[in-house]
Amino acid sequence: MTDKNSSAEDVGLRVELDEANNNIEELQTKIAFQEHTIEVLNEALSSQQQQLDELTYKLRHVIDKVKSIEPSNMAKDSEETPPPHY
Question: Which pTM value belongs to this model?
Answer without folding.
Answer: 0.59
